[in-house]
Amino acid sequence: MGKKPTIYIISDSVGDTAELVIKAGLSQFLTSDYEIHRVPYVEDKDTIDETLQIVKDKNSIIGFTIVDPELRAYINERVKLLEIESIDIMGPMMDAMERVFKDEPRFEPGLVYKLDKDYFKRIESIEFAVRYDDGRDPRGISRADVVLIGVSRTSKTPLSQYLAHKRLKVANVPVMPEVDVPEELFNIDPRKCIGLKINPEKLNDIRKERLKALGLGEHATYAHKKRIEEELIYFNKIIDEIGCDVIDVSNKAVEETANIILQKHKELSSDI
Is the pTM of this model over 0.85? Predict the structure, then answer.
């Protein structure tokens, strides 16, 4: 039995990018028995020399993500002299981009992992959408940028998640005749609320498919036309009381509805 394949990674950051690329390459081979050793935060030639000597002694392979042009050139020079198989993961790509963009790289390690306010806002919005999905906690209504209101199967949850990735805090509230909607809906700016209207025939088809997917008969009350009409009448009553805008989602993709909401929110933000 041969020796276990070993790949070394040299990086001026944590080495995640190099390991991801190397694992993608390894996935194309039958072997799953290998080792990866990272040498992160490399800033000097001594560390490079020490690592390359280990690689040479073990007859191994090395992959590296180094943005500093001097250190990158040094590694490429040394691996040739030592006859080490190497993969310069960032170099060729940066060189090509520099030629095409007519611009110099910033040569700053780890930029892809530097988290900014925009990143945190997106994560916060996604967590918000999950926490206040489907009316779980009415306290989210007053804190939301947008509140979606609709009967079951009007894409409230997918819309909430899509808008969350656009950094909007979205709460969604289901409407059904047997349950009073939260009082908070009537205490916020109605311009933040969006009613999701749907054609009863379309909703009937959607609910039947949903029941099939769940392994249930399509004749359950959930998909009865009379039940759907009752829900939509109650929905219209609530929307009229709130006095908010309505979007007909009958034949709209989630992205299309989301873009309408984003535009409405932008207009609202400019008025405030």
Answer: no
